[in-house]
Amino acid sequence: MHSWPVRSSFSPALISVIGIFILTCVLSLALGARSVPLGEAITALFHDDGSIDHSTIRSLRLPRTLVGILAGLALGLSGALMQALTRNPLADTGVLGINAGAALAMVLGIGLLGVTSQMTLVWFSFAGAGLTTLAVYAAASSGRIGATPLRLVLAGVAIGAILRGLTASFVLTDPNVFDQMLSWDVGTLAVIGYEKVVVAAPFVLIGSIIGLLVAPSLNIMALGDHTAQSLGAGLVRVRTMTIVAVMLLTGSATAAAGPIGFLGLMAPQVARAFCGADQRRIFVHTLFIAPTILLAADILGRLIMRPQDIDVGLVMAVVGAPILIWIVRKRKVAAL
Fold it and tell me: Which parts pass through the membrane (predicted)?
């Protein structure tokens, strides 16, 4: 595997991206049905004076912001990994059917096993995402050709369609399942407490490390399989590591926040506009751009109809689609 540059890559663009990310996190703590001054929001992180504002921030908005950071980071990076692996600039985490597998596992847990604990359902979701990823990779790997980018996409689309059909059948025939899946299926960051953060964080961390480690080899694979092999890249190893990273990232994010669309498509494109085609820099920029986009969409959902919230999945669908179209047209996205 090729390595990361020895010198620091903290360019002015990356510093700007990090600054906007930090500002968005602070705004996520301060803005909502009841707005809090920015200084007070920061103070609440280090000292709880027992006031309503401090209680709101520490018990509601901080966990909501942390879930947004984790889910945004995971979905954005998994999208960047899939785009690099399949050499398709418009690939999305949903292409491999992982979201569909997570949803089906949760439906089975609720409808067949009577699971009601959110903590337990998170594990069901992650298990479904993991098993689906393994199934897609196994289906794509069969035969002499192996798991080529095209075969991975085709296997993911086929298996995802089957799983979504099964999920719809269970949901529409069981009112209890329908009620519990309604908000999660849209995509939301509204949580109380830190259970989802504690469960998702280790998987997001491990998936991110694997994704960053494999980034240099994905640069080589962009030259084509034959060229990559001649340069010493282990195609099977790189694809396996990439699939594992996508499984961990998408599974944990979907379990925590639901199947949020467009982020895996949009964030890597924005990153690519900042830093070019180097996957190493795309991944690093995406780590900050994706949660910034997701938190900004969540803030918008809180303010449009306050004191009511609009789930972030709906905001991403409404705002994300035209932004993505604009990026494609203005940046003239080319094949990777």
Answer: 12-31, 65-82, 94-115, 121-140, 152-172, 197-220, 241-262, 282-300, 312-329
What are the angstrom distances between the C-alpha of 58 and each of 8, 39, 177, 308?
Answer: 35, 14, 31, 20
Residues listed for the chain: 336
For 329: left if phi > 0, alpha if psi spans -120 to 50, otherwise beta; the answer is: alpha
In CATH, what number does 12-331 get? 1.10.3470.10
Helix (H, G, I), strand (E, B), or coil: what is residue 97? Answer: coil
Judged on CB neighbours under 10 Å (0-12, 13-18, 19+), 195 is middle
Q: Dump pLDDT digits (tens) for 196-214.
A: 899 889 999 999 999 999 9
Q: Tokens 């499984």 appear where?
A: 247
Residues 6+ apart with CB under 8 A from 80: 211, 264, 267, 268, 271, 279, 282, 283, 286
* Cα separation, 78 vs 102, whole angstroms: 15
Please say whether the dihedral angle defined by the alpha carbons of residues 32, 36, 37 and 40, taken in this order, is positive or negative: negative
Could you count the other beta carbons within 10 Å of the beta carbon of residue 112?
11
User: Tokens at residue 235, please?
Assistant: 């195609």
Q: In this predicted model, what pLDDT tens digit does every residue of 271-329 receive, in sequence order?
A: 988 888 888 899 999 999 999 999 999 999 999 988 888 899 889 988 877 776 776 66
Burial (CB count <10 Å: 0-12, 13-18, 19+), residue 119 = exposed
The tokens describing 167, both together, are 């999920």
Q: What 3 state SS string does 269-286 have?
A: HHHHHHHCCCHHHHHHHH
Which residues fall within 8 angstroms of residue 228, CB to CB, at 6 or more apart?
A: 217, 220, 221, 235
Confirm if 177 and 110 have CB atoms less than 8 A apart.
yes
| Vertex 253 angle, CA 191 and 101, to 5° | 115
Distance CA 175, CA 147 (A): 39
CB 79 within 8 A of CB 264: yes
Residue 306 DSSP label: T
